UniProtKB/TrEMBL annotation, chain A:
Record's protein name: Putative ABC transport system ATP-binding protein
CDD domains membership: ABC_MJ0796_LolCDE_FtsE
Example of a GO cellular component annotation carried by this entry: membrane protein complex
Keyword Cytoplasm among UniProt keywords: no
PROSITE patterns: ABC_TRANSPORTER_1, ABC_TRANSPORTER_2
Gene3D superfamilies linked: P-loop containing nucleotide triphosphate hydrolases
Organism for this UniProt entry: Aquimarina intermedia
TrEMBL record, chain B:
Protein's name in the database: Putative ABC transport system permease protein
A GO molecular function held by the record: transmembrane transporter activity
Domain ABC3 transporter permease C-terminal, first and last residues per copy: 291-414
Major subcellular site: membrane
Membrane topology: Multi-pass membrane protein
Subcellular location as annotated: Cell membrane
Transmembrane segments: 21-41, 288-312, 341-362, 382-404
Sequence similarity: Belongs to the ABC-4 integral membrane protein family.
Species this chain originates from: Aquimarina intermedia
Keywords assigned: Cell membrane, Membrane, Transmembrane, Transmembrane helix
Signal peptide: none
ATP-binding recorded as keyword: no
InterPro entries: ABC3_permease_C (IPR003838), MacB_PCD (IPR025857), Macrolide_Exporter_MacB (IPR050250)
Domain MacB-like periplasmic core per the UniProt entry, residue ranges: 21-249
Length: 233, 421
């Protein structure tokens, strides 16, 4: 599903060049649930951004579902993001003046779907995350956990190949975190490939594979015994 | 072009901060309001002043004799001379492009003594000896009977056309003057017509107190022989009297042995030049109106551009989210542009509507005033053309106002946009 070889990325900070990613080789196959861990400054967010086509690598190759991701202009990048990827952010990033169903329908809007079909699909995913009753509520009328579930529904709406989650539980309390993780595990059970960036070991333990990043290199990549979030809830 | 979803997006974005949207819109509203009001006011002033010219043929000059100021061919300076009736065919022959040449003689004048008698009534009126063409140069409205014709000229009929003011002073209200006689300096003339005249440079009363008699009858009755008091000369429409004036005066100078360099011998008043001056004034006024109006509008547009920039800045994160979700650059750019154009047009239309409303009210008040002849302001209006131009300006400026913010909106990389907290 994802194949990355020798990925480099550096940032220009004035006259200094900051080498963030120093040659990463990484492979993810269909249906995996991977957590990427590392201390701050380890380059994990940069890595995720490159995976999410929000940023471009200086060097190395990146293949997503058989498509070479290279030399993208913003228009094509936007289309690939829409088609291949679903994003889940730490701060939910819902659009504040749109209600839940419109937020979920947004990726479909950019696919050019008609409103009726958009709403049907969005409703389907809202049901899936258990928020059908909250469809017409604005984000500020929802709790943190509910917001993140709306965001997950939105990430799922365009039926992407891969879900990318950047600290999905970072802004949530433990109980809500586990609820969200339970939802993510459920989605993974259905066969969706999911990558999670986190620095919480207990969250990482709920994935199937943990990748440790340090100073721009993968220092550890191991499969783990998945802890089902359900057992905590 | 714009589907319902895009409309929803625009409305949602603009209503997200009502107060600010309204404030921003007010800038453009005010700009277009001022522009239209200024143009309408200019038009009103123009209408008012031009009404002062009445229906007079504006491509006209008046010419009279003055004292000769230079000796010429052995003749001394300080001579006086008169136009002759023979000057008319000679001008006609030598200066092409003239429409009417009306020689005129005149009795009475401002502050003149009583010169007209009918029964027990007397009055002081201007009496003109005229050719029939004069009615086309200085139009009057015949209210009964007829105006002069060439039969009157040829047969030297002693007939007269009198103004309403004359009729009022010499006749009883229920009397019909037609066919009756009046005595002008002791000579009886039969009244064959009455007229009324539109205002003439504010001297409306005076305009109604004139008597027109055939030129030839005038000459005979009042001993003016072949002399001509003054002339009213109108050029054909395609050339201006101002350009022909020199030729006409030259002919007169040759005919009367006057030094060609003598600028004082022939007095003249060029109505066309005056009219053009007035016209030029209004062109300038219109220019000023456009200039000021456009500048005010411009500041409104800059306001919109400014606010759109702030909006884009504020929505950086939202734009980042949208792009992460798959919005192509043009979708973002298009939305910002549409918002800007929509805002501009809506507020602009409101401005046009409001200013038209004000013009309507002013018109209603002006109509209600008793004598509109005294005001220098009449019927302020803007034509559809101006509204169309304003609308065009609005659309263009909306586009321009949105352009920079739209560019700013997509210049930020989605990743940077998302990072903004």
């Amino acid at each position: 599903m994802i194949e990355i070889t020798d990925l480099h990325k550096s940032y220009q900070m004035g006259s200094n060049s900051l080498h963030v990613l120093k040659g990463i080789n990484f492979k993810v196959s269909q249906g995996e649930l991977v957590s990427i861990m590392g201390s701050s400054g380890s380059g994990k967010s940069t890595f995720l951004n490159i995976l999410g086509m929000l940023d471009e690598a200086d060097q190395g190759s990146y293949t997503l579902d058989g498509v070479q991701i290279k030399n993208l202009n913003e228009k094509i990048a936007a289309r690939y993001r829409n088609k291949f990827l679903g994003f889940i952010f730490q701060s939910f990033n819902l659009i504040t003046y749109k209600n839940a169903i419109d937020n979920v329908g947004l990726p479909l809007y950019y696919q050019g779907l008609k409103r009726k079909e958009r709403n049907e699909r969005a409703m389907h995913y809202l049901e899936k995350v258990g928020l059908a009753d909250w469809a017409t509520h604005l984000p500020n009328e929802l709790s943190g956990g509910q917001k993140q579930r709306v965001a997950i529904a939105r990430a799922l709406a365009s039926d992407p190949k891969v879900l990318l989650a950047d600290e999905p539980t970072g802004a949530l309390d433990t109980k809500t975190s586990y609820e969200v993780m339970e939802l993510i595990q459920g989605i993974n059970d259905e066969g969706k490939t999911i990558l999670i960036v986190t620095h919480e070991p207990d969250i990482a333990q709920m994935t199937k594979r943990i990748v440790n990043l340090k100073d721009g290199l993968i220092i550890d990549d191991r499969r783990v015994e998945q802890v089902r979030a359900k057992s905590y809830v | 072009m714009i589907n319902k979803d895009q409309w929803n997006e625009i409305i949602e974005a603009l209503t997200a901060n009502w107060f600010r949207t309204v404030l921003t819109a007010f800038g453009v509203f005010w700009g277009i309001f001022i522009l239209v009001i200024l143009l309408a006011a200019g038009k009103g002033l123009e209408n008012g002043v031009k009404k002062g010219f009445g229906d007079i043929a504006t491509n006209t000059m008046f010419m009279w004799t003055q004292t000769i100021s230079k000796p010429y061919k052995g003749l001394p300076k300080g001579r006086r001379y008169n136009f002759k009736i023979t000057d008319v065919p000679s001008i006609r022959q030598q200066v092409p492009g003239l429409l009417y040449i009306s020689p005129r003689n005149q009795l009475g004048g401002f502050g003149g003594a009583n010169n007209v008698v009918r029964g027990l009534n007397t009055g002081a009126f201007n009496v003109y000896g005229d050719f029939p063409e004069i009615i086309k140069q200085d139009p009057i409205t015949i209210t009964s009977g007829r105006f002069l014709n060439y039969g009157d000229i040829d047969e030297k009929r002693k007939v007269a056309i009198i103004g309403d003011g004359v009729k009022k002073e010499l006749f009883k209200p229920d009397e019909d003057p037609i066919g009756d006689y009046i005595k002008i300096q002791g000579v009886s003339f039969m009244v064959i017509g009455t007229y009324t005249k539109k205002s003439n440079n504010g001297d409306r009363e005076q305009g109604q107190k004139e008597i027109f008699v055939p030129f030839t009858s005038f000459s005979q009755a009042f001993n003016s022989g072949d002399r001509v008091g003054w002339m009213a000369i109108t050029a054909e429409d395609h050339n201006s009297i101002t350009s022909l004036k020199k030729d006409v005066i030259e002919v007169v100078k040759t005919n009367h042995t006057i030094d060609p360099d003598d600028d004082r011998a022939v007095g003249n008043f060029d109505l066309y030049e005056e009219f053009n001056k007035v016209n030029g004034l209004f062109v300038a006024l219109k220019g000023v109106a456009y200039f000021v109006g456009t500048l005010v509008l411009l500041s409104g547009i800059i306001g919109i551009s400014n606010i759109m920039l702030i909006v884009v800045k504020e929505r950086t994160k939202e734009i980042g989210i949208r792009r992460a979700l798959g919005a192509a650059p043009w979708a973002i750019r298009g939305q910002i542009l549409l918002e800007s154009i929509f805002l501009t047009i809506v507020s602009g239309m409101a401005g046009i509507a409001a200013s038209t409303g004000v013009i309507y009210v002013v018109n209603a008040i002006l109509d209600g005033m008793p004598d509109t002849n005294e005001t220098m302001f009449a019927n302020p209006s803007v034509d559809l053309m101006v509204v169309c131009i304003a609308l065009l300006i609005l659309i263009t400026s909306g586009l321009l106002a949105g352009l920079i913010p739209a560019q700013v909106a997509i210049r930020t990389k989605p990743i940077d946009a998302l990072r903004t907290e």
